[in-house]
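As a warm-up, study this chain.
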Amino acid sequence: MAELHQLVLVLGDQLDLDAAAFDGFDAARDAVWMAEVADESTHVWSSKPRTVMFLAAMRHFAQALRAAGRTPHYTRLDDSANRGSLQAQLHADVERLRPARLVMTAPGDWRVLQAIREVAQAHGLPLDIRDDRHFYCSVRDFAAHAQGRKSLRMEFFYREMRRRHGILMQGDQPEGGQWNFDADNREAFGASGPGAVPPRTVFEPDALTREVIALVEARFASHPGRLDGFAWPVTREQALVALQRFISERLPLFGRYQDAMWPGEPWLYHAQLAAALNLKLLNPREVVAAAVAAYRAGAAPLAGVEGFVRQILGWREYVRGIYWTRMPGYAALNALDAHEDLPAWYWTGATDMACLRDAIAQTLQHGYAHHIQRLMVTGLFALMYGVQPQQVHAWYLAVYVDAVEWVELPNTLGMSQYADGGLMASKPYVATGKYIQRMSPHCRGCRYDPAQRTGDGACPFTTLYWDFLMRHESTLAANPRMALQVKNVARLSDAQKQAVRQRAAAIRRGEVGTAQSAAANTRQAMLDV
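Now compare it with the structure written out below.
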């Protein structure tokens, strides 16, 4: 075999034939390396849908590489010589292939970057890490944006990105005369529900994906999640179809109902494109361009298109900048000193709280929940319960098909759990059960009353809201955006405060909110009769 010049490393979330790592690729002298390893599904208890999403997309990308004349050195999960971790596998393959240098596009995970650097150093090889052109903003540019600012806020970063890239702009002014149309994007469905929502865009697993499904069912049988309905796009061609279907079928009503929830309706008007974006099957520029084109053609309203663009050009780029300029210390932050364990029913959905049961059930079934279910249902409960934020992070990273650490960690620790003390968000997102009642009909069929903070029928969200304000009263009082909420604590009598604390303690002991507690309450009621 001719001497190998460059070994181009491709990770499971870098499935882009036009990635910077391939610049100057010479099939006669260079080679591509990919590996499926168990450690990527076990360092967190990765759900079956998430593992299948990654492995199926990787195997299809390997086919695309072969078609492009870049046949990869590809290690499958079930290969007998598989070393079990990216680091160990790369060590073995570098020893066997003896490349002169390693090349890669910048990875999305700090842990993986350190592991690969260690391999390169151990073998005395140069490691060429190239910018990820997938993003609008480089990490260097974000660092320059952040330098010297007393506080970071996504809104100002987003406006800078709009100006820099000329997106939804009229000259130097925002389209429609305002930067943000949030006020127009907060409607709930009426009493009759969402009506005829467009059917989900499904992609029937082909032979290669079915092979992966069977492998994951056998290899990770004890892991959470189900695969009987797996239908995610795992190729670029499929991802492009999913994008087109979203633009034509869902974008027109996306903004209006982006915060709404409805039981048994996981998809509603959401894009469901995050996994394809994060695995690099889609480029954010083509996604944003398609949405803006729909607005220009009169096929979608400005408010909804702006809200969608903000999620990609704003939040997605912003959280990446936060991650790479604050790691590795960011991952250990715990500003509210939260140390409770994540309730075990987060892995099963065995709770009698209707909103949480619905959100977790669909998460385990599909590896998916939309942003309000993540922030204001599963995340909100964990925050007010006082779960250690690293446990919440591990759960989100494990269960969602779109979870890659650079995007998931800041959204979870910062936006959802306020563990960074306000770097990502200007206040903790806390609310009583009345918020969920306003945005969904879940409370109609739930045994708990969101208007009650204490007593047997009190909604755990409402109890924990008041408990959260009391536990963090001094910290929150200094936050201008929380001052009014904290003042309400002073209106409670000592007896009312004690009742809240006792009810919150019962929730944390599992006496309230679990399926088991509901059964126990039913048995007790029968005995009382």
